[in-house]
Amino acid sequence: MWAMIVKEFRQLRRDRRTLAMMIVMPVVLLIVFGYAASFDVSTIPTVAAGPQAATVAGHLGKPFDIVTTAPGEDRAWAQQQLRDGKAAVAVIAGPGPVQVLVDGSQLFTAKAALAALAAGEQKASGPAGLAGQQPQLTVLYNPQLATKDIMIPGLCGVVLVFIGTIITSLGVVRERQSGTLEQLAVMPLHPRDVFLGKVVPYFGVAALDLAIVVGVGVGVFGVPFNGSFAVFGLGAVLFLFVTLGIGVLISSVSENQGQAIQLSVMVMLPQVLLSGLIFPLSSIAVGVRWISYLLPLTYFNEISRGVMLRAEPIGPLWQPFVFLALLGLVVFTLASLRFRSYLAPAGPRRVGRHPAVAGTGAGGEPGEPVGTGLGEVASAGPGPAAGSGS
Amino acid sequence: MTGPVTGGQGWWGSQAASVRYGDKLALDQVSFRAEPGRVTAVVGGDGAGRTTLLRCLAGALAPGSGQVRRPDRLRIGYLAAGSGTYPDLSVAENLAFRAAAYRVPPAAARERSGELLARSGLAAARDRLAGQLSGGMRQKLGVIAAMLHRPDLLVLDEPTTGVDPVSRADLWWLIARAAAGGAAVVLATSYLDEAERAASVLALDAGRELAQGTPAEIVAAMPGTLHASDDPPAGEARRRAWRRGGRWRIWDPQGRPDHATGPGTTQVTPDLQDAVTVAILARELTGREAR
Predict the structure, then answer these.
(1) Cα–Cα–Cα angle for A256, A262, A266, rounded to 5 degrees
(2) Nearest residue to A299 (alpha-carbon basis) of A324, A328, A325
(3) Residue B7 is nearest to which of A189, A353, A365, comparing CB atoms?
(4) Do the Cβ atoms of B73 and A365 come within 8 Å?
(5) A19, A268, A279, B197: least CB-packed within 10 angstroms?
């Protein structure tokens, strides 16, 4: 048994990544759950419209945070603010009774708002009350406050992360494990062709998966799809662009499928926990929240919930679209660069792909540059950075 | 024994090619040429630099210094160490992928792969996954895939290692077929008996050229004489002796006829294996003396 224990420790010591994961992961999980995992909403972005907007805004205490007061605007404007995700609650004060609109697509925020309003009513003129007035309460976009209605649009993103990251990373690293990488490297294929050839099938499969998930969500679970398919599709394409790039990036730094899965999980876990899929972004501690804004799923969640539940057009969604595009650009550039070196096991000094003619002709005497124009002469370059010889 | 790289068209090979992996010089100023229609065997022990040289020739690696002369990528066929085929694709699918990558028209690819598969005994395995093939069958598939597009230069890294004798014969038929078709074939092998079938041989040791020429030239160039004995020699001669089969080979650099005496000791005519072993031994002894 002792021999077995020693062997395991030796193997573990060599597998630095697993070792790091065993030590780092508990710390990461603790931080994530400690600082991020919270359903408590302490701030609710609120807009106030109507002639008495300023008065009502003055009466609204915590947790409502007045972001805009617009006495000249009406209910239509207020509703638009909610649709565009600029606020979770809108108060329309006059003419007539006070109306409160709550964005049901932000489930926990909406529940917190309803609880705060109810508590305010009981106290009549408490800090959260509306100066003793009985407001007309309307929950928009998810009137029943159904969990499935907000989870399924988010799950679309999770499915794409799963396909895009895990499956893609496995598909590419398999090439290294099956020993066909070197074969690919010398084939008359451009690295771009190999890269796209690897990614396009997964793109197709992920797109099909997305269609199925949305179809099941709408058809079986009755989740509304109020917005534009085109806007949703564009968001999904951008998001896939990022996740497939991450998959290729992972595979290019992994030696085997086990390592690829480990890394994929490390990339997936924060996406599920920090993207606003489960815990509201506003509940995540600021010290951890910045991570959320580096995660593509955060932006896809905004797009999918915005489009499916609130029928949000592309205009107000420009931010998530731009950030997804930027992330895609960064990730795909890195992935392409890594893929090039991945295809060149000897490092970046691999010989050129195109015939290079050095010298003057069909020479070949010692010391004379050789080259016929028929083929290529790989002349002295810097030596390979790494590799193995027989 | 070193054949100089001299003029002439239509050959591929290296000229003073060197490759360094970190501190280790894996290939040290190696020059050789592979002629069209001929098979060149690259032999040597572990760490000799065979794979490194073949990778340079195939374009998977750039030499640190020196030159490598090779055709365009489309005209190279390469079998890396291992079969280089996809285990989760069938035999036919593997060949179809390779044909498409090398831009062989589908009809021509079907005809050629059908013919090569039939001759090498793989026709019945067309629809089997490459991962389910035996080692020898997989190597044959790898060689067929490498030569499918009728390359000008066919580079094969240990195509016959670990392969049964029948499959080795099939593999050699394929290799000869490629050479007969005009390809310059360069193959690495650990089997010196196999290398004797090649038109020319390049022996490497620790990244350096040890010997080069036709097998007969290499054998003829062996200095001294060789004896076979039932028992190992005593004294200083022990450093110049090695086991081969059930007997001992004793090399005498000076070629003294009465050098090795004893029961059952006879002078033997060296073959390629003896000549290469002597060359390695001579380099080792010279190195020791130099130190």
Answers:
(1) 145
(2) A324
(3) A365
(4) no
(5) A19
Q: Which residues of B touch A351 (CB under 8 A)?
A: 59, 61-62, 68
User: Tokens for A12?
Assistant: 């573990």
Cβ count within 10 A of residue A23: 9
Output the pLDDT for position A86.
85
Using a CB–CB cutoff of 8 Å, tell me whether A363 touches chain B.
yes
Whether the model pTM is above 0.95: no
CA distance A89 to A182: 59
Contact with chain B for residue A188, Cβ under 8 A? yes
Q: Give the closest of A182, A355, A372 to B60, CB-based.
A: A182
Inform me whether the pLDDT recorded for B95 exceeds 50: yes
ipTM for this model: 0.82
What is the bridge-based pairing of β-strands B24-34 and B184-189? unpaired
**Given an 8 Å threshold on Cβ–Cβ distance, is B58 in contact with A358?**
no
pLDDT digits (tens, 9 = 90+) for B174-192: 999 999 999 999 999 988 8
Collect all residues of chain A within an 8 Å Cβ-Cβ radius of residue B62: 346, 349-351, 378, 381, 384
pLDDT-derived band at A285, boundaries 50, 70, 90: confident
Give φ, ψ of B34 to 5 degrees.
-110, 120
pLDDT digits (tens, 9 = 90+) for A147-194: 888 888 888 888 888 878 888 888 778 888 877 888 888 899 888 888
Phi, psi of B63, rounded to the nearest 5 degrees = -70, 145
